[in-house]
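hiii, so i know i said id send this last week but things got crazy w the move. better late than never?? heres the sequnce for the chain we talked about at the cafe, plus the structure i predicted for it. fair warning i was half asleep when i ran it
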Amino acid sequence: MHGVIILGAAGLAKEFALYVRRAGGFDSLTFVNDLQDGQTTLTIGRESFPVVKDWSFAHKHPFVVAVGSPGIKQLLVERALQAGLDPHPTILDPAAHNLCGANRLGVGGVVAPGCVITTNVTLGDYVTLNLNSTVGHDTTMGSFCTTNPGVHISGECVIGSHNEFGTGCIVRDRLAIGSRKTFGAQSAVVKDVPGDHPEVLVGVPAKPLARR
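okay and structure toks below
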């Protein structure tokens, strides 16, 4: 039996289940989420799936992550690895476009319909590219990053780990972005964002959100 375990059991997991099925070759889907009390089933269309909460499996299939938050992603991945599970190579929906065989995609991630990855791109592990996101030439993106729908990252960018890009965010070419940054919806990143400390940036151009 060739199945896949999906870490997460919220709305994004419903969508990712569709992409995984469209990618083909999977006989079963198993959803895991031990972070939400009381959730025992996940409904997708007319189907209902049990949600595993104790990390016990009849079959230890490889896993992908269907969670947007980089921090929660890492927590679930750590638990999955401790349970003896292995990550699946990053899954591309058939309507996503990986244009170059030289691109290097990590494990445990999902690339949604409408995404375009051009050439000489490196994606780390557990990277989510949500609907209609693009990654330009010679860009490197670290592990546990997430793009929400409609994010456009230009060429020759160096992006650290655990970053999240809000819907419609754009990133200018040849920028360096550190780690653990959150960019607001429709923000425009036009200069380097250094450092590995958590930071929220919003606006056009994107600037750190003032703390109250």
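btw Residues 3-82 form a domain with the Rossmann fold fold (CATH 3.40.50.20). thought thatd interest u
miss u guys!!
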